[in-house]
Amino acid sequence: MSLRVVHTSDWHLGHTLASHSRAHEHARFFAWLLDLLEEEGADALLVSGDVYDRVIPPSSAVRSFYAFLEAAHARCPELDIVVTGGNHDGAARLEAPAEVVERRIRLIGGYDEARPERVRVPLTDGHGEVAAHVVAMPFLRPGDYPASLGTAEGYAAVYERALDAARERCRGGEALLAMGHCHMAGAALRETDSERPVLRGGEEAVPTAIFGRDVAYVALGHLHLAQPVGSERVRYCGSPIPLSMGEAGYTHQVLVADFDGATLRSVRSRIVPRSVPVRRFEGALEEVVGEIAASDLPDAEAPAEEHAFVDVRLTDLAPRARDRVREALAPFGARLVAVRIDAPIRQMVGPSTVSSESGLQTFEPEQVFAALHERRRGGPPEEALVTCFRELLREAENRESTPA
What we know:
Layout: E1 2-8, E2 16-17, E3 20-21, H1 23-40, E4 44-48, H2 59-75, E5 80-84, H3 91-95, E6 105-108, E7 120-124, E8 130-136, H4 151-169, E9 175-181, E10 215-221, E11 227-229, E12 231-236, E13 253-260, E14 263-271, E15 278-283, H5 285-293, E16 308-314, H6 321-329, E17 334-341, H7 351-354, H8 357-360, H9 365-377, H10 383-401
Parallel strand pairs: 1-4, 4-5, 5-6, 8-9, 9-10, 10-12, 15-16, 16-17
Antiparallel strand pairs: 1-13, 2-3, 7-8, 11-12, 13-14
């Protein structure tokens, strides 16, 4: 008895980057994923949380999700689709169409302690026979387990109950799988704009030991960097598109897992083609300007939705840095996300310049902020404070660019 499962997560439909919609990239990803499901002859598709970017997603994101489900069922009518909720999803909204979608599509937005059987989903093979059972666990909130338990202990208790129930249903040769949307102990967590630290002193890391040796595969979501955790059977597939400039270097992928009976035979990565370039340029201003000029960024005449996202990190201070970068990008189809100054604070403008209105006009807001902080506080601002300043500046710039 064989089974082929495709694992994906963290779509974040409705996401924007520097106020630009990602709908085009998601549409291209869905088209590619539909082709892959057919090409691979997949028996099941597991989507491990964060379907949407916000609890209340825009209607266009909801339509996109429903259209994908309809197209997947039309092209692969025997495909089992299991979708679980993540911390960005509203449980009720994700489950809203559950009563009207095809029986092979299971939407589990939240955990219901009174109905634990909802998270156990049978998966069938190409002959219509049950080949596996998956514990399709959504993101667990503190109210989903006893208040006396911490996160790790709470997750362990909920999974133990669900896995034991699934084991009772497994017959010889049927695989036992699990899904989850959480941070597993031992996983690499990158601090990016889209992936805030989820740990407070380490207490929220869930140990992989909660999955017994008989669990053949664990399909995880929540972290955007694809990676195994401890073994090949416990995997994050990562997000299908970069959700911040910090993820520009990620290799985005979905995973294809093959099973022989109850045993995991192999896990393969299928790389998601990047439909829109996401580029970061770093160095001194003159170096960055030269690199942009020699780059393969899209032409300015390319459709707007295909314009690259560009982030610039400068290691020196120079007047009109932002203007120089914009001028360098003018021949290309590019959306400038940010120009950040990573130069040492001591290189920042001095008191006379900070006091001069004409001097201020030649420097970036972040340079002035850092210089003022050093002047008044006697040292550079902490990174957390700089991050808050950047967010406030971005909000202010967005308000200024929005017509009244």
